[in-house]
Amino acid sequence: MATILDFTKIELDPGLLERVPLGLCQYHQVLPLAREDGRVSAAMVYPQNVAAREMLAELLDAEIVPVQTDAGRLQEAFDRLAVLFSDSPSSEPPRLLLYAPEVSDDALLTRLARALAREEASECVRVDSSDVGVAAVLTAAGATRCRLCLLPLPERSEWDDVVLRSTTSLLMAATDQTRLQRVLVVLRGHGADMCALPWAAAIAGAESAGLALLILSETHRCDLHTLLDHESGAGRHLAAAIKTATAKGVEPTLRIRQGDAIRQIVDEVATRRYDMVVIGAESRGEFAAAVLRQLAELAVDLRGLLICKPNRISIPPKTTMHTTKRRLRRE
Prior knowledge:
Largest sheet: 9 strands, mixed
Helix content: 40-55%
Radius of gyration: 20 Å
Order of helices and strands: HHEEHEHEHEHEHEEHEHHEHEHEH
CATH topology of the largest domain: Rossmann fold
Number of domains: 2
CATH class of the largest domain: Alpha Beta
Strand order of the largest sheet: 5-4-6-7-12-11-8-9-10
Number of strands: 12
CATH architecture of the largest domain: 3-Layer(aba) Sandwich
Mean pLDDT: 84
């Protein structure tokens, strides 16, 4: 059973919040609490997420002591902090950046851009000039805190490189008008899944496509009892994933495989012939890039790739943090 922390009774350390962007905390479902003797305690919905702990350790220059907590209570803390940051320029709703030179409004890429703009209730800025290269667009997306950058699907040999170069979430899609039929979401059991799922469900709904959830098993045998037990961490995560999809009007199917994590994904795509794959990435996206290198070799007509990534550039300015420190102390 997860520990239920009452964040209203915990005095958060403003110095820690200054070094870890709120958006990054939300992506990984973590919140630094206090520092003591070179160690930082952090509330984590997924304390087994090594990449999230390493990210916090790097930003805070400290050993991380995870304290497991409930997603609902952590979200309440995020909502409270969002109010504190409400007067910051960095709190403006992040935009979607669409790079679509010579792409029609009926193309898959632009249809998905509209669907995700509706999902985010956010502006989608379109760049039509072919004089602007992909590298410049990726740089602009990261520097301006875009939540998602959308690009035409590049050559297969470039898939992994584009993902590694991007510092924000990335959608690459075909520019023809054919509709998607099957969308696969890879569930890694981390907070990144909850970033990917609403977008994947919105896409499946807009395209009238089927949505499948591949539950990665990092053990030799998948424990179905644990997955179906809502008291277990894996069970709560799967239940939340299904609830997120069904809330968008999409009924997902569940897929389970065994073996190496990358091989599970590749075999699933090769067997079921999906035309879009969605992965929640950690850190720079090395795992997602490794998956895409393998998928690029398949004789499968993949027409869309959605890789969710944390944007580590969106650090609040110091002037904002001074105001936030005063508010935290008053509360």
